[in-house]
Amino acid sequence: MNKVLFFAHLRDAVGEDFIKMDAAGKTVAQLKELLKEQYDLPRFDTVMTAINEEFCSDDDVIQEGDEIAFIPPVSGG
Amino acid sequence: MLERYSRQILFSPVGEKGQEKIRSKHVLMIGAGALGSGNGEILTRAGVGRLTIVDRDYVEASNLQRQILYSEADAAEKMPKAAAAERRLKAVNSDVDVRGIIADATAELMEELVEDVDLIIDATDNFETRMMINDIAQKYNIPWVFGACVGSFGMSFTIIPGKTPCLNCILKSLPLQGLTCDTVGIIAPAVQMVAVHQSAEALKILVEDWDAVRPAFVSFDLWRNQYTSIKMTRAKDEGCLSCGTDRTYPYLDVENQSKSTVLCGRDTVQIRPPRKQEIDLQNLGVQLRALNYEVKGNPYLLSVETKDNRLVIFRDGRALIHGTKDMALARSIYQKILG
Question: Given pLDDT bands bounded at 50, 70 and 90, which one contains residue B336?
Fold first, then answer.
């Protein structure tokens, strides 16, 4: 099982701080595609992704038990 | 002089040596909105030697909820933020050489300003300018502190050239933006939380306590009670065009810079003339009044009412066209007035 966390407007789009799902074996890019099918996630391609609180790329493969976080860049200031 | 900073000096990572270092440093802050207010006040009170502030906007009533440097009088007078911030910060601490520059932070202007700058604080509201800051910082080897917020959410990351990944390593391209600012709004605590993260990093850098600099990218949501800290070592990209081995500083290329911009969170377009200008505002005001436009102004800007829009024209030829997000319409209104 994996925990997938959403921040800022992504959290609002999903309606939960996090969801549990089985994403082991998938790449980050594949997980993003899957989530885009399930939810309306605006500007999801430019989000920063972390696995277990470490920056990761779209090619990284998710392992069993990994915690994935999606953090969108925001622009205000 | 030291009595004023005694509590900060008592804090051992600063000490007297650190205080002297803070005093000898020059900080360039891009933006004087909400993040600029928070950072500007903390750094001024901390006794930084010089603080140069660049901002293109003026104070409005809707700023007062979170932009702590400004008053109702500033909004009533439509004071340019750079001028109002300079006035306020000089009153807070006359030791500090504060200089407010009323202008759009273009790559050209920032390259002129970075000579002998020790640190750049990002207090902007858009990624186009942040990517320019990022390239300038890499080109001139200057640390900078990224900060951004929207709603109750904020983020910050410290970028040390040659050491940490840069903003272009992390984002790869200019993120699309605008929507969130327009729709989500912002609460003041989110701004302050970002500003205190940035200014704490600034103090570490100014006293040269490099080991204390936070290596992680932090983000938090004060309403949802989330706080995350992400290790960024793996983000460093040797192929990055801003900080890699074959760097080109893509965001300093004039071709990549827009001349008109829809301002974040507002029904406003900014138009910037292709070349620097010096407009005689008083004379222009007289001409426009003769044409039956309703004109108000102060020494820094003219506010002109048209049928459906309001233009604010600055001395450098820049204008904000309120009441539209349509860049073509904004350009035509601009050209009608300024030729």
Answer: confident
- Residues of B labelled catalytic: 181
In a domain, A77, yes or no: no
Q: How many Å is the maximal CA-CA distance in chain B? A: 64
In tens, the pLDDT along B301-313 reads: 999 998 888 999 9
Lateral strand order in the sheet of A48-51? A18-21, A2-6, A67-71, A48-51, A54-55
Which of B178, B194, B232 has its CB closest to that of A55?
A: B232
Round to whole Å and give the CA distance between B190 and B201.
17
Same domain as B302, residue B283: yes
Do B122 and A77 lie within an 8 Å CB cutoff?
A: yes
Chain A residue numbers touching B148 (CB-CB < 8 A): 73-77
CB pairs under 8 A between A and B: 107
Range of the domain at B51: 3-256
Q: Are B125 and B181 in contact (CB under 8 A)?
A: yes
- With helix as H, strand as E and coil as C, how does B293-317 read? CEEEEECCEEEEECCCCEEEEECCC
pLDDT digits (tens, 9 = 90+) for B204-230: 999 999 999 999 999 999 999 999 999
> Which chain B residue lies closest to A57 (C-alpha atoms)?
B235
